[in-house]
Design goal:
The complex is a heterodimer of chains A (319) and B (240). Chain A has 319 residues and is α/β, with parallel strands linked by helices. In chain A, 37% of the residues lie in helices and 28% in strands. In chain A, helix 3 packs across helix 4 and helix 4 packs across helix 5. Chain B has one domain.
């Protein structure tokens, strides 16, 4: 539905986007993730036809945005960064303008406006001047404008910045809902946002793609191994070093990363390495039951997107 | 035409929801009344000829049109709504035309509100409605060309203030260039060019209510040229 093909964009001497390619089909929420200045906004501006790329193509539903910008723009709803609005118009006037600019009129128009107002919870401020609206309402008004014409593609530049936690949850739920039938591209530098809403991630740094895939795939590719930290004691009696050493050696797939450490209270701490793609907890549990051990604590450790992100982007910087 | 209408309506609403449009109307009304009083005093009472009154129009619109157009692009860019506007399905021509029509409508309203002023004055002398209609048509032509210039300057300017000052200076220059040329005793091609580009010069017959095809052509083509330059400018920005 939406494709970036080897996009390049420079602002004078500053190369903002340097050969970025990705694509997203229907029903995909794609997150562009990267630090400030990674080129997220520049890519979105090329996809929406705000500016044209210096090289490569932005394609929406098979239409090259540079060749037929008006046709491409009809299919796209866009929420620019920080939701710019006209302070002299009320939400009612603003949405009426956006709807008629999109060629909606009559009953179709009022239904569309009603639906967008409902979805974004704008009812209470519908006739108040935009100047008086809170940041949350402004953001929602921007979003209402973007979804007004029921576009196939939604492009949202940092849709949750400046919102309070409740509003963030609401907007994320709305994005997930919209993402079922549409193609949504959103940018963020908040990792939880990607984990909470996106089915696909493109990680950008300094204008280049450093990783892409589903959040799980990206995690998978980078985490290498998964670790299990276990604290156990014997159900009866007291563990000694010899016993716990023998028991740990009896594990089949999980391997000790280091010899288990036995504390003075008879609790053994084991650091186990799990082969990729397995559920390590199940074996640990069965093993403990078989050997009459009590699991006091089991901690599965994997790289969070946060760690992956830091690893990827700092690698990019050091290159 | 529908997108043009949508944009023009939005612009028009924003102008009349803010103090700008009212300020323009009131300023123009006060100015025209004061100016009429001044020229009537100057030429002694009983005068029905409104030519001096209309003669000032190119200069009046040199200030008024920039006031109505200074926001059109400069303000969109400041607010960031420029980004939104350019990602809506408008062609560059539709964007420029929509903005032009809204500003032009505001000026036309301000002009219409002054109608009672010369009308009352004319009642005192011999009154020719045909001449007055011609004079108002002339004023609308100057207003249109000035608005196009203002829109163009606004598309280049970083903010409202520089859009206003830039357009006003350019328009005042254009309206007085023929007189400056005469003052400095220009002759030959230089004087001809100065006369040809001057908005003031082309208004001379119109201020008498005389409609000359050449003056029509001048104002219409100047308006079209500046609107074209604006569209070109908007398009050029997409590549930078």
């Amino acid at each position: 539905m939406i494709q970036a093909i080897d996009l390049y964009k420079s602002y004078g001497p500053v190369a903002a986007v340097r050969g970025v390619s990705f694509e997203a089909g229907e029903g995909v929420v794609l997150g562009l993730l990267g630090p400030n200045g990674a080129g997220k906004t520049s890519i979105m501006k090329a996809l929406t036809g705000f500016h044209y790329p210096d090289g490569g193509k932005a394609v929406v539903a098979g239409i090259d945005v540079t060749e037929d910008p008006v046709a491409a723009k009809r299919l796209v709803g866009y929420l620019p960064e920080s939701a710019p609005l006209y302070p002299d118009l009320t939400p009612e006037e603003y949405l009426a303008f956006a709807a008629s600019a999109r060629g909606l009129s009559g009953r179709v128009c009022s239904t569309a406006v009603g639906r967008a107002v409902e979805a974004c919870g704008l009812g209470p401020v519908y006739r108040r001047p935009v100047e008086e609206l809170s940041k949350g309402y402004r953001q929602r008004l921007g979003l209402a404008q973007a979804i007004l014409h029921d576009p196939k593609v939604l492009i949202l530049d940092e849709p949750t910045t400046g919102l309070d936690p409740n509003q963030i949850l609401e907007i994320r739920a709305l994005i997930r809902e919209l993402g079922r039938e549409k193609t949504v591209v959103l940018s963020t530098h908040v990792l939880q946002e990607v984990e909470a809403t996106c089915s696909q991630v493109v990680i950008l740094n300094e204008g280049r793609v450093v990783a892409q895939g589903s959040p799980a795939e990206i995690g998978e590719a980078l985490k290498g191994e998964e670790r299990l930290s276990l604290r156990v004691r014997a159900r009866k009696g007291r563990l000694d070093e010899l016993t716990i050493g023998r028991l740990v050696a009896g594990l089949r797939r999980l391997k000790p990363a280091a010899p288990p450490v036995l504390g003075p209270d008879g609790v053994a701490a084991c650091e186990l390495v799990a082969p990729p793609g397995e559920e390590p907890g199940a074996e640990a549990f069965d093993w403990a039951v078989e050997n009459d051990l009590v699991i006091l604590e089991m901690l599965r450790r994997r790289l969070s997107l946060e760690e992956i992100f830091v690893r990827l982007t700092s690698e990019g910087v050091s290159k | 035409m529908k997108p043009v209408h949508a944009l023009a309506r939005k612009e028009f609403r924003a102008a009349w929801n803010s103090p700008v449009a009212y300020a323009i109307s009131v300023a123009f009304l006060v100015f025209s009344a004061a100016w009429l009083y001044f020229v009537r005093g100057f030429y002694a009472a009983g005068l029905a000829d409104l030519r001096p009154y209309f003669g000032i129009m190119p200069v009046a619109f040199a200030v008024l049109a920039p006031a109505a157009t200074m926001r059109s692009w400069a303000e969109e860019r400041r607010l960031g709504t420029y980004e939104l506007l350019l990602t809506m399905p408008f062609t560059e021509a539709e964007l420029v035309l929509g903005k032009f029509l809204a500003a032009y409508a505001t000026i036309a309203i301000a002009l219409a509100l002054t109608l009672p002023v010369p009308l009352l004055a004319s009642l005192l002398g011999s009154f020719d409605p045909g001449v007055l209609a011609g004079q108002y048509l002339g004023a609308l032509l100057v207003a249109g060309a000035s608005t196009a210039v203002g829109i163009w300057v606004s598309s280049l300017a970083k903010n409202q203030a520089s859009a206003f000052v830039g357009a006003a200076l350019l328009l005042i220059g254009l309206s007085l260039v023929d007189r400056l040329a005469a003052f400095f005793r220009f002759s030959g091609p230089a004087a001809a060019i100065a006369n040809w580009v001057s908005t003031g010069r082309h208004f001379e017959s119109l201020s008498r209510g005389v409609l000359d095809g050449r003056d029509f052509a001048y104002y219409l083509s100047a308006g079209a040229a500046f609107l074209y330059l604006t569209a070109w400018n908007v398009r050029r920005r997409k590549w930078s």
